[in-house]
Amino acid sequence: QVQLVESGGGLVQAGGSLRLSCTASGSIFSINAMGWYRQAPGEQRELVAATTRGGGTTYADSVKGRFTISRDNAKNTVYLQMNSLKPEDTALYFCNVRPPNVAFWGQGTQVTVSS
């Protein structure tokens, strides 16, 4: 059984920073990709950032230049450094971990950015 533990969400003012972390544990032999999604009330869930085992990264256009995803394969942990936060970034952020042939989701951590 796989568990994902997320942390780092909170309330910040516009222009501030947060760092999210997600650690996967349990019966995981390997992880192909890890990433972060977010969903605001009334909106669709969207990919924020993702990283592959080889270190490749992808970002939503709305966060490019502000967010940085990183991964510690030894710890099965993915991070999302969020700088220059905007009110539009307010959402529930979900960690996503993908071993071969399956995907796991975290419970979500709330990020709220005030004006």
The helix/strand series, from N terminus to C terminus, equals: EEEEEEEEEEE
Content-based structural category: mainly beta
**What is the arithmetic mean of pLDDT?**
94
* Alpha plus pi helix count: 0
Largest sheet: 7 strands, mixed
Plain-language structure description:
With 115 residues, this protein is mainly beta. Helices cover 0% and strands 56% of the residues. Strands 2, 4, 5, 6, 9, 10 and 11 form a 7-stranded mixed sheet that branches. The protein has a 4-stranded antiparallel sheet with strand order 1-3-8-7, with no helix packed on it.
Give the tags.
115 residues; mainly beta; seven-stranded mixed beta sheet; four-stranded antiparallel beta sheet
Fold topology:
Layout: E1 2-7, E2 10-13, E3 18-26, E4 33-39, E5 46-52, E6 57-59, E7 67-72, E8 77-82, E9 91-98, E10 104-105, E11 109-114
Parallel strand pairs: 2-11
Antiparallel strand pairs: 1-3, 3-8, 4-5, 4-9, 5-6, 7-8, 9-10, 9-11
Structure, briefly:
With 115 residues, this protein is mostly beta strands. The chain contains no helices and eleven strands. It is 0% helix and 56% strand.
